[in-house]
Amino acid sequence: MMSNHDTRYPKGYYKDHPKELPSSLKGFDFHAVTKTRLPGNSNRTTIFEFLPKQFKALLDGVEKTIEKAVSDATKKLKKKQRALKSELKQASEALASVEQELDETIAERDEALAKVKQLTRKPSKASEDPKKIKYLERELERIKRLFEQKNDENKKLKSQFQIDYGDAQKARTDLIVAQAHNLKLATFLSDINAALEKRGIELEDLMPETSGMISASTILSSSTTKVTTPKPYRG
């Protein structure tokens, strides 16, 4: 059975136990690590101890990671938005082309109908009129089928145009949301720095390390981070 007392290890502990090191701390330096049992928790809690320089490097790394993730997501959204705009433009052009063809087909149909009506009204030679009427009827039927085909194409393109327009609007909304999250994260990191400075932990202007240390704690992600600062000399 494991002891309830704290167990403190040097940072080299993770060289022998690399799988236990949280992925968010890989590549960062820290002072030591302590494993303890908190009241009401059967699992051991890991406390990482950072010197001010090390903690500042950790915060800078977290900020860069967040900025890169937001930048990558923003680039993907902008690329998707450009692709959707291109598709939207193509769909719009195709729609305009089909509408023009539809207008031309309607004009041909109206012209054929006018000729049929004209032949039925005026007397003509018996040998020629039936042939002309048959020809015009065939033309009318052909134009009718063409009209129906173009009309269906027009409906499909209008439907696709509406879908592409909706996708483009969604991409624009996602981009705005991502930029808002970026601003919130930047504000959050700024608040952390301000809180540490309020407690006397100057991350920008660090004091030299001494053997006597006092500790301040803050929660970072799922692990506990301890920042150690020099203890003031009492004369």
UniProtKB/TrEMBL annotation:
Keywords linked to the UniProt accession: Coiled coil
Coiled coil: 70-160
SUPFAM superfamilies per record: Tropomyosin
Name this polypeptide is given: Uncharacterized protein
Top-level taxonomic group: Bacteria
InterPro entries: P-loop_NTPase (IPR027417)
